[in-house]
# Entry
Amino acid sequence: MRNKTYPSDFDLIIDMHCHMGHFRNFQIPFNDVHGMVTGMDALGIDIACVTHHAGIFSDFRFGNDKVAEAMRLYPERIVGYCTINPNFPGEVRAEMERCIDGMGFKALKVHPELHDDYPLDGPNYRPVWEFAQERKLPLLSHTYSGGDSLEVFGRLADEYPDVTILLGHLAFDKGLERSFAMVNEHPNVIIDLTGPVQFLGVVERAVRGVGADRVVYGSDIPFRDAATQLGNVLYADLTREEKTKVLGLNAKRIFGIGEMLA
Amino acid sequence: MYFDCDTRIGRSAGTKNLGGHDISPETLLANMDRIGVGKALVFHTMAWEYHPNEGNAMLIKALAPHRDRLEPCWVMLPHHTGEVPHPQDTVAEMQRLGVKAARIFPNFPANSHRFELAEWCIGEMLDALEAARIPLLLDFVLFRREQPPFRDIFSICENHPNLPVILIGVQARNNRSLYPLLRRFPNLHVQTAGYFVHRGLEHFTEFFGSRQLVFGSNTPTLGMGAAHFHVDRALVAETDRTAIAGSNLTALLAAAAERAQQEGRI
# Structure
């Protein structure tokens, strides 16, 4: 039973940046889909958009299969990202077709940091961008201090205008104001709050910086706990309408998941 | 009642693109009222970002009208350079002023106070705090994937079994080293908001009970509302939630007050 009592009494909370499973670098309690959904219920989170840890590390096909299994177990609670690894270019197109066409995944996920710092605009990622453009899919990319610059994201946004680019972690390491400027120049880029939203005032700055329609809530569960991030949105100095968009309506639109909520 | 072990007042420069904050005691109290936090342990930003001598004095003055809800926490440094008094004198002054908690920043980046967490450096400070039963908040100002210096924490907890230690900002990745320390040292505690392990409060409580968890928000770097929500929605028994929210910290500070009274300092 989802806990929707104050302060999380929003009709729809979608966590658009989630993972699942073990992670070699540290122990994660309750990291399977059952443990995640139990935690989501406690916090009032309706839907988690998930990429599996195995997918961002050792075997993206294995990870995608785990996500598909979670989607089967909780069809109203789990949305799948198809994760691909550009270091195995021969498998990429077929894997995207298998996940998107065959298993009902809604979006693509790339993690250049864990995939050998492969550049987002490198040749092995091109089929991913082209596929996303063809299908008008959202694509979530991790960002990090040593990774691709905001200029690269901006160029890709221009080249693939039908792809909604979810700018992972707000590109926090590049600087908030620089991220906002890039997002404002590219209408198909959306800010993912995951991570920096734990800091007081970040959600307010993001909404003031790019508008409430361009910001989505995420937490990285079970990589970390959702409450310390979700709480900052719930208690933010924003209007209820703005919070409603950030917490769920924007992600519902971007992922096209209205039918899950019927 | 929620009793926050980790708040600060004053004006901060800003860091990591997060912007600065300027928090008065009145602002802090208004925020506590909005969220439902009854009391808070407070240190002064000047004691961290500039120097404890100035910041601790500012803190006492600023909190004077609000001592029923805001408890002062002093920031300490090693005394060997002569920039602060000997720790026995500092602790005596703390007891006289009713300061029942201390905080140190023993790490090496520019946002810390750059000293070793070792007996040869701060042993006398630890001895003085332990004798006074004053809880020590250990703040390494960790970020993201970093971890506390667990070997040093092991030594401190082993050498000072009557010193309550509260680890601030443990991050999400450190259970494999943290758990054996918690099992071994009952004087080791963990502040909640910086311990953002997935369903971590629940897992921790299953393994160790709730006595070693202390509600703390790290306001204004993190959010007090978020920290409250974290504890309020944790899937733990209500008795555990009550302990985490406030009674654990209340008991630690009461022990310090009792010791100060025994020594005739208050």
Notes: Residues 14-261 of chain A form a domain with the TIM Barrel fold (CATH 3.20.20.140).
